[in-house]
Amino acid sequence: MKSSIYLQSAMVLASATFALPALAQEKHPITIVVGFAAGGTTDTVARILSEPLSKELGETVIVMNRSGAGGRIAAEYVKNAKPDGKTYLIGPDGWAIFPTAMHSPATLRYDLMKDLRTVAQVVSYPLALVVSNQVPATNLKDYAAWLQENPQKAQFGTPAPGGQVQFVGWVAGKTLGTKIEPVTYRGTSPMIVDLLGEQLPAAILPTGAILDQSRDKIKILGVMAEQRWELAPDVPTFIEQGYNLEVGEAWQGFFAPADTPTAEVNKMEAALQKVLARNDIKESIRSKAMLSPKFVPADEMEKMLNRDIEYWGKVIKDSGYQP
């Protein structure tokens, strides 16, 4: 009888001992860091992906919001995180490209291409030029003509100063043959309010942000992409309308601390590819985030990022903008 009790006790102790590593591992889940507030587009994408990634990787995946300074606080946090494959950053191209093109690593407190490494692009979406009803144009040609006749109204809304939209607007104006001046807002929502109220003639913003608005109130003149967007197939591109705009689709992607082992990065990259191939996940991204799912592997993402930083760095310099 005693030996049976001892045997049972030993088995319980052994089970507890073998459970410890699993419990310890559970205390360190994989964290996807978002540099923007909860409820925003980047946060939505991260939360759509977190649960299927958890199942694919066999580990708990959580989302952490560290918002502020246009995503820079999150970037610095991930830069300093332990490079063990447990911490990743998701961010938009506007955050990745423009601060790096405009500021030194000392100012940013991180060097994007040295302190972080690419993992995969996960979504894409075109920016669009839209106008309010104070603009009679319904296409880019008529809008360009209207700008020539009404130079005092050559303005467009931008959700932040010195960001992606401001410089896209500079390129768009140059492509249309006129200069359009940015009107800075704090976010997209107040910009849309002024478009609806005809207080603002035009704006540039993610196409998905405007799809639930009445086309009778806000007109989408053209999307900035090589081909029409799947979520707004009735809207022509700039190229279709005869304007060879050198602006590609915007995107969001995953990054990791620079010294994260390649094996860990490859594992996350493969998991993202599998998750993004699922029809239910594709539909969730389209319907909840108003973006297009698009997987691009780490090496291609890195090349694209380097090209974009070089291109936009020249645009910023040519524009005469001073931070």
UniProtKB/TrEMBL annotation:
Query: Secretion signal: which residues?
Result: 1-24
Which keywords belong to this entry?
Answer: Signal
What Pfam families does its record include? TctC
Enumerate the InterPro entries for this protein. Answer: BUG (IPR005064), Bug_dom1 (IPR042100)
Nucleotide-binding: present as a keyword of the record? no
Family, per entry = Belongs to the UPF0065 (bug) family.
What is the name of the protein in this document? ABC transporter substrate-binding protein
What is the phylogenetic placement of the source species in the record?
Bacteria, Pseudomonadati, Pseudomonadota, Betaproteobacteria, Burkholderiales
